[in-house]
Write a structure and sequence with these properties.
Layout (H helix, E strand, L loop, with lengths): L4 E5 L4 H12 L3 E6 L11 H4 L2 H4 L3 E5 L5 H11 L3 E4 L6 H6 L1 H21 L7 E7 L22 H20 L3 E6 L2 E2 L8 H13 L6 E3 L5 E2 L2 E2 H11 L8 E3 L5 E2 H12 L1 E6 L6 E7 L1 H8 L11 E5 L17 H7 L7 H25 L1
Parallel strand pairs: 1-2, 1-4, 2-3, 4-5, 5-6, 6-11, 7-10, 8-15
Antiparallel strand pairs: 9-12, 13-14, 14-15
Helix pairs in contact: 1-9, 4-6, 6-7, 8-10, 8-13, 10-13
This protein binds NADP nicotinamide-adenine-dinucleotide phosphate (NAP) and ligand G4F.
NADP nicotinamide-adenine-dinucleotide phosphate binds next to helix 1 and strand 5.
Length: about 375
């Protein structure tokens, strides 16, 4: 068991929660950065917060913000971390078009602020740094499959800010000898994914539609192709990157690409029905085609499944289109496989199945609550 000290920014997010679990299982003392919000966003890590007797020596939360360099310096000075995982970000690509300056501040300058704190506190040779870089850097792709050597072409304020952070890490590595790594992670999902990202939006909404809680799923560009993996598998790589002799940058991906439309079809099948597409462009609609009585009976029980063949449940809403879209992402993680012996454990079908099961359970509980209110 390790007795290392880690600081994790973005600990309340999807990856933060999985990484916390991993680091705790390895015996780390984990410090997390949380920002002040009017309603707490700690749901994903509440099991650690509400068990202080079990975790009070190993887990600590600190108020601070990636836009506030003084808070970052104060925390880093106090805890003298062996490792910093910078997962905090305004992580929504579409939102970054509405808040470009804030996104640049958090995602770009936020990284610089941490690196400057490490440098000014003379921790460059003690503290290892992981940067949550992204496949969005490839944007308008310059090669059909993307690896560490593929040129970048960012297509959103989010990606442009992440590009600044990516190069800042490399510059601090070369200029000051910092052990800093970029994990260029392709999309990774889970039942803990925020509901405004497309995969979770699909499993969350279809589950509620099946229980009759809502009527429709509104989507944007269903032709976009993404390389989706499971967040649990990907945080393992974040940790592994910081355990090597030399700091390097790695692509982490499943190596499979699928469309948003296919994700809808697979999620629907997991619930127990198939989808038929009709129309084109913004007029395209998704209808319930066939229902699998066995699967529906086993999951829903009598009378709780509210759909029948012909019901129109998916529509296009141009609101979700982006001013500049990333049409295709498809990763080549050969370097991670060869150098770190890493490959994803969870298949695409297992990922969708896990997300659907969790969202069906949540929807079922909502129905029960509604019944007794
Ligand atoms: P997420 O669920 O959206 O979590 C983002 C985290 O950042 C949350 O804890 C959030 O806090 C925190 N945060 C936001 N603004 C902050 C600020 N100003 N100061 C401090 N913390 C702030 O994202 P994720 O999916 O876990 O992704 C983790 C990181 O990997 C992000 O940097 C993301 O850009 C990057 N990434 C993600 C993927 C992916 O597919 N998931 C792929 C490549 C790269 P609140 O809880 O208070 O909002
Ligand atoms: O789920 P998304 O919002 O993820 P996106 O834009 O790929 O970004 C995620 O992955 C990146 C890694 O490549 C991370 F860096 C980033 O932080 C984030 O985690 O959208 C995926 C695709 C896009 O092409 C989008 O246009 O789905 C398309 N889409 C279609 N309808 C939609 C929707 N996206 C969202 N969020 N909502 C829709 O209704």
């Amino acid at each position: 068991m390790s007795n290392k000290v880690a600081l994790v920014t973005g600990i309340t997010g999807q990856d933060g929660a999985y990484l916390l679990k991993l680091l705790m299982s390895k015996g780390y003392v984990v410090h997390g950065l949380r920002r002040r919000v009017s309603v707490p966003t700690t749901q994903r890590i509440d099991e650690y917060i509400f068990a202080p007797q079990e975790h009070h020596n190993e887990f600590h939360l600190h108020y601070g913000d990636l836009t506030d360099g003084l808070s970052l310096t104060r925390i880093i000075q106090r805890i003298q971390p062996d490792e910093i995982y910078n997962l905090g970000a305004q992580s929504h690509v579409h939102v970054s078009f509405d808040s470009p300056e804030y996104t640049a501040d958090v995602n770009g300058l936020g990284t610089l602020r941490i690196l400057e704190a490490i440098r000014n506190l003379d921790l460059t040779h003690k503290t290892r740094f992981y940067q949550a870089s992204t496949s969005e850097l490839y944007g308008k792709i310059q090669s059909p499959q993307q690896s560490e050597s593929t040129p970048f072409y960012p297509r959103s304020p989010y990606a442009v800010a992440k590009l600044f952070a990516y190069w800042t890490v490399i510059n601090y590595r070369e200029a000051y000898g910092l052990y800093g790594c970029n994990g260029i992670l392709f999309n990774h999902e889970s039942a803990m994914r925020g509901t405004s990202f497309v995969t979770r939006k699909i499993t969350y909404t279809l589950s509620r539609i099946a229980y009759g809680l809502i009527d429709k799923l509104y989507l944007g560009n269903m032709n976009a192709l993404r390389d989706w993996g499971h967040a649990r598998d990907y945080v393992e790589m974040q940790w592994l990157m910081l355990q090597q002799e030399q700091p390097e940058d790695y692509v982490i991906a499943s190596g499979e690409r699928r469309s948003v439309r296919e994700f809808v079809e697979v999620a629907a099948r997991e619930i127990g029905f198939s989808i038929e597409w009709r129309g084109q462009g913004v007029d395209e609609v998704g209808l319930v085609s066939e229902v699998d009585p066995e699967k529906i009976g086993a999951t829903f029980g009598k009378g709780r499944f509210k759909l029948k063949p012909g019901d129109e449940i998916v529509n296009i809403d141009p609101y979700y289109f982006r001013p500049t879209e990333v049409d295709v992402l498809w990763g080549d993680a050969s370097k991670a496989r060869e150098k770190l012996n890493w490959s994803p454990k969870t298949s695409f079908l297992e990922l969708v199945s896990e997300m659907v099961a969790e969202d069906l359970e949540q929807a079922r509980k909502q129905v029960v609550v509604n019944q007794y209110e």
